[in-house]
Amino acid sequence: MQLTLHVWRQKDRNEPGRMETYRAENVSPDMSFLEMLDELNEKLIKEGHEPVAFDHDCREGICGSCSMMINGMAHGPERATTTCQLHMRKFQDGEELYIEPWRAKAFPVIRDLVVDRTSFDRIIASGGYVGVNTGGTPDGNMLPVPKEKQELAMDAAACIGCGACVAACKNASAMLFISAKVGHLGNLPQGEPERLKRVRKMVDQHDAEGFGHCTNQYECEAACPKEISVGFIAQLNRDYWQASLAVNTRDESSVSAG
Amino acid sequence: MKLDAKVPSGPLQSKWTQYKADMKLVNPANKRKFSVIVVGTGLAGGAAAATLSELGYQVTAFCYQDSPRRAHSIAAQGGINAAKNYQNDGDSVWRLFYDTIKGGDFRAREANVHRLAEVSVNIIDQCVAQGVPFAREYGGLLANRSFGGAQVSRTFYCRGQTGQQLMLGAYQALSRQIGYGKVKMHSRTEMVDLIVINGRARGIVTRNLETGKVETHVADAVVLATGGYTNVFYLSTNAIGCNVTATYRAHKRGAAFANPCYTQIHPTCIPVAGEHQSKLTLMSESLRNDGRIWAPTKKGDTRHPNQIPEGERDYYLERKYPSYGNLAPRDIASRAAKQVSDDGRGVGYGGLGVYLDFADVIKRDGKARVTEKYDNLFEMYERITGEDGYAQPMRIYPAPHYTMGGLWVDYNLMSNIPGLFVVGEANFSDHGANRLGASALMQGLADGYFILPYTLSQFFAGLPAEKDKPTSTHDECKRVESDVQQRTKKMLSLKGKKTAVEYHRELGRILWEGCGMARTKKSLGDAIAKIKVMREEYKQNLIVPGTDSNLNVALERAGRVADFLEFGELMARDALTREESCGGHFREEYQYPDGEAKRDDEKFCHVAAWEYQGETKDPIRNVETLEWDAVHPTVRSYK
Ligand SMILES: Cc1cc2nc3c(=O)[nH]c(=O)nc-3n(C[C@H](O)[C@H](O)[C@H](O)COP(=O)(O)OP(=O)(O)OC[C@H]3O[C@@H](n4cnc5c(N)ncnc54)[C@H](O)[C@@H]3O)c2cc1C
Ligand code: FES
To answer: In Å, what is the CA distance from B490 to each residue of A45, B192, B389, B499, B580?
Structure first.
């Protein structure tokens, strides 16, 4: 099949970008979307042009690297699918495709389709963990965990941190991302001791990074390649509310420094 | 080169305990005076960086992805082994140790493997405490499954996403240290060279992938946790960015590369669909528990599989290995598929496929039961191939998956260059000539959480006091930095006709043919000759557009392919000189009349560790003889 591609090109963080149009010829329906772009890039390189930069690594929908808007949809039209898992058989011959980077203040474009998502890392670093050191942990079976709770935690933990939720949200909110961490650790007894502090810190960091507020549009859930449920946002809101009432919010780092 | 494994004396079972009891400690007040560079933040590096920082060392870590959470470890599906014996089915540290040694076809170092089995139990405890949501039984205790040909259930798992969950555990532990300002993390940064000063590893040279900036980082020790080199085959189950650059560059600076020919080909991958193919997707091996593998008995049979009658199907694994059947170890199952395909009986694109059929189990247990067990896999298969694995057999084919070889390390996980440590898939140490399923995750985390933090402390404690530590302005740093810059400039200036991807694909084809599942003296000799020619061509005819001062994906790829082009030859050379068959290394000249691998313990019960001699000279093959105190190598039979 043949396609017309309109692709966002931007040299670096500082220069303004623009859409460029390319023809993709001899596209096989068995190709993944990224393989279609690979072929375009090979052609561009041979002509002495710079290839279209995009993030990718595992190409099996698990690392969360790939990230692009295809016709205005995060990761394209297929439900519960990352761009790398999207195959060209889902498109029609002759179609026109608009390919753009995630758009959000907290995800500045670095080049072409590549954005800086380190704001996500900083949110996790602010408190998205269980604060245990290596060693000295009790036997794995010391604390039984109800299977339902473990399954629920696993549903949330399936988040791949790609940022599609932010890209799909008109407010560029990362609440679904945070709620996935809340739902993961907050539903396990191991995460209980820091449950409230974790929520508060991650939400504070979220706001400091310039992500927007959640206004319950649920576009995030629809775009999420791992189908993380907005039900976890409700859990987050409950915990956050409780956390704002809690008095003791002493910091682990200040404790250990003292 | 003298290879001293530094295995502690004493009985196998107490070596590690004794080591820990005897080791010198670093005074807590002195710990922050020691700095360490950790390159790679997958399971091994992430766990190491977090733990070393918790101990108080100054840690600087690097990865090439935009975030440490995305390391290739995240893709592991099946599970992680540990000798917990929670199932009361007779497992023990000894049994896990023995299975791993036997699985590796008696080509691994006993003491290291025993230690691995010992610490395996701590890993599970650690991960549970971090909030890794391992599968559980209704009573709330941890669930296990049996995996990869083991006779006990010792594999812990998180649905089909075990690697992801372990990775997030390590990433979160690392992030906690980053958040405290104790680990300095450089993502989107690639290590492109190693700094060795007065015979000791003192730092690395990196390229910032966003800005192109080349920089030197110095420290008291360098840890490489950069994963395996499977992508030398171009098509593999590894993430696209996996590379040999860090380990090969260290090799060129003096680190011995051990057993590069030990590569693992995984039997259940989705076959190639065409020339455009950029990577191969693994389907969990657990499918072999219920699926039956077959090929048509007739050559070139193009009928739809459902049209091929029972009598014209060859369930070749069940036929050849009646007791293990479809669960035969990876190397055996892979080779059998290749034989079928070589015989002209393969199916699908290029005849490079065999069937994995669920019709019987669906009839026996019902589709619902099969869906419950494997649904995400059937969905994944359909997404990629457009075919419904319930309605017709899946097509599968072996693909390069894991590399047992790596930089040589001693019992301390230190290479032959003092101060250079290597952990995870990047080292050679624990899997011998073949790795068992669910044991790579175990090894990565064992190295990172529980072994390196001890052995590195021991190294620091033994260092003489130093008044003037070298800094990044040291002559050697400047020299290596300028080497790096020149290499980059050279690639950009060639303006040839072929892209790095084209060369990479061609290299992959040469190695798959010549140094893949079955190797011969001739195929290896041919591969070496072809690679040499190609490498010369690469230096003249490569095209890399753009500049070195911003994000340039073509340039990144070109650098990695350049290293693969040198490394591929080393791999073939190792395979050529190992005149026996063992584990994943199968030399057609060395087999029993029934086609089984013929090991030669008299001549080859050793590790081959290669020493770089410069571009124009052949490398030297050094040998570490494997000593057997506790086990006796036997013929590995799965019949
Ligand atoms: C599809 C798949 C499924 C698997 N399933 C299982 C399983 O079920 N059980 C099991 O035990 N094993 C499994 N394995 C194997 C296992 O996942 C790997 O062996 C293991 O995760 C490797 O971990 P690592 O930490 O050594 O390296 P990696 O996770 O590969 O991490 C390498 C790190 O090094 C960095 N890096 C690499 N090169 C450079 C460089 N030049 N400069 C800077 N940084 C660099 C990367 O950014 C990354 O952070 C599977 C492998 C694959 C491919
Ligand atoms: S490339 Fe890893 S999720 Fe798409």
So the answer is: 17, 15, 49, 15, 41
Q: Which residues contact B465 (CB under 8 A, 6 or more apart)?
A: none
pLDDT at position B395 = 97
End residue of a domain, out of B372, B398, B424: B398
Residues with CB under 6 A from ligand 1: B 39-45, 62-65, 71-73, 75-80, 162-163, 190-191, 225-227, 237-238, 242-243, 245-246, 282, 401-402, 424-426, 438-441, 444
Domain extent for B535: 475-614
Q: Which ligand is nearest to the CA of B75?
A: 1
Integer Cα distance of B289 and B364 in angstroms:
14
Q: Specify the CATH number for the domain of residue A244.
A: 1.10.1060.10
Burial A94-114, CB ≥16 within 10 A → b, else e: eeebebbbbebebbebbbbbb
Q: Which of chain B's residues have a Cβ under 8 Å away from the Cβ of A184? A: 131, 133
Alpha carbon distances (Å) from A25 to A2, A50, B167, B637: 5, 19, 39, 51
Q: Are residues A152 and A247 in the same domain?
A: yes
Residue A61 Cβ < 6 Å to ligand 2: yes
Q: Which CATH number is A106's domain given?
A: 3.10.20.30
* Residue A236 and residue A171 share a domain: yes
Domains in chain A: how many in total? Answer: 2
Distance B157 CA to ligand 2 centre (A): 21
pLDDT digits (tens, 9 = 90+) for B28-68: 999 999 999 999 999 999 999 999 999 999 999 999 999 99
Instruction: Find the length of chain A.
Output: 258
- CA pair distance B35, B218, nearest whole angstrom: 8
How is residue A160 annotated by DSSP?
A: -
Per-residue pLDDT reduced to its tens digit, A51-96: 999 999 999 999 999 999 999 999 999 999 999 999 999 999 999 9
B238 CA closest ligand 1 atom index? 53
**Distance between A146 CA and the closest CA of chain B, angstroms:** 5
Domain end, chosen from B378, B398, B418, is at B398
For the entire predicted model, the pTM comes to: 0.97
Query: Helices B43-55 and B452-461 meet at what angle, rounded to 10?
Result: 50
Tell me whether residues A157 and B66 touch, CB distance under 8 A: no
Residue B92 lies in a domain: no
Residues of B (281-320) whose Cβ lies below 8 Å from A: 281-282
Residue B451 belongs to a domain:
no
Cβ proximity of B14 and B113 under 8 Å: no
Does residue B486 sit in the same domain as residue B605? Answer: yes
To 5 degrees, how large is the angle CA B363–CA B365–CA B366?
65
| Chain A closest-CA separation from residue B501 CA (Å) | 8
Domain that residue A40 falls in: 3-111
CATH number of the CATH domain containing B383: 3.90.700.10
Q: What pLDDT digit, counting tens, does each position of B193-213 carry?
A: 999 999 999 999 999 999 999
In terms of Cα–Cα distance, which of A131, A125, A113, A84 is closest to A208?
Answer: A125
Q: Which residue of A has its CA nearest to B52?
A: A134
Check: CB of residue B615 under 8 Å from CB of residue B262.
no
Distance B71 CA to ligand 1 centre (A): 6
Cα B47 to Cα A132: distance, rounded to the nearest angstrom: 13
Q: What are A33's two structure tokens?
A: 């979307």
Longest dimension (CA), chain B: 79
| Chain A residues inside the 8 Å CB shell of B163 | 62
The torsion angles phi and psi of B528, rounded to 5 degrees, stand at -60, -45
Domain count, chain B: 2
Q: Does B165 touch chain A (CB under 8 A)?
A: yes
Residues B215 and B201: their CA atoms lie apart, in Å, by: 16
Indicate if A9 and A95 belong to the same structural domain: yes
Give the model confidence (pLDDT) of A153-181 as tens digits.
999 999 999 999 999 999 999 999 999 99
